[in-house]
Design goal:
By secondary structure, the chain is mainly β. It has one helix and nine strands; from the N terminus they run E-E-H-E-E-E-E-E-E-E. The longest helix has 11 residues. It is flat and about 45 Å long. The N and C termini lie far apart (about 35 Å).
Length: about 140
């Protein structure tokens, strides 16, 4: 990964075989991220796992093990107790221009990925919501 930070905008360039979540954690640690918003992402993934919320903390997971273009990733990152928690959604496109999307669980970079983060000082954390079984966003 290559990265640069200027005025709370972080640019990342990921390389083949790197995992997006791992590299995001490294960059967030390097640039002392408290909270961040994922502004932009493009590139290609070759192994991706998506989820769909079915209820009470239950996600239906599906893996895609073929090259797919990143059309969009959005969401947020929270540093909570020195661990970075992600809530990201992704839209991917295949070679026939079909799109799929869902909760972004993991992804391995194909050719490259370019990601832009906006670093913030928002006081936010995640806590377990007993009704949904999800770690939901909480704000001070």
């Amino acid at each position: 990964m290559q990265s640069q930070n200027k005025k709370d905008i972080i640019f990342l360039r990921l390389f083949e075989n790197e995992y997006i979540h791992e590299e995001l954690k490294k960059a967030c640690k390097k640039y002392k991220v408290k909270t961040a918003v994922l502004l932009s992402a493009i590139g290609q993934l070759v192994n991706t796992k998506l989820g769909y919320y079915k209820g009470k903390g239950n996600y239906a997971e599906e893996s895609f093990n073929k090259p797919m273009e990143i059309l969009s990733i959005n969401g947020n990152i929270i540093n909570q107790k020195n661990d970075f928690l992600f809530h990201l959604h992704i839209v991917l496109g295949d070679e026939k221009k079909n799109a799929i999307g869902g909760h972004f669980i993991e992804g391995k970079v194909g050719v490259l990925a370019e990601i832009v983060l906006l670093k913030t000082n928002i006081n936010a954390y995640r806590k377990l919501d007993k009704k949904t079984g999800l770690k939901t966003l909480s704000l001070d």
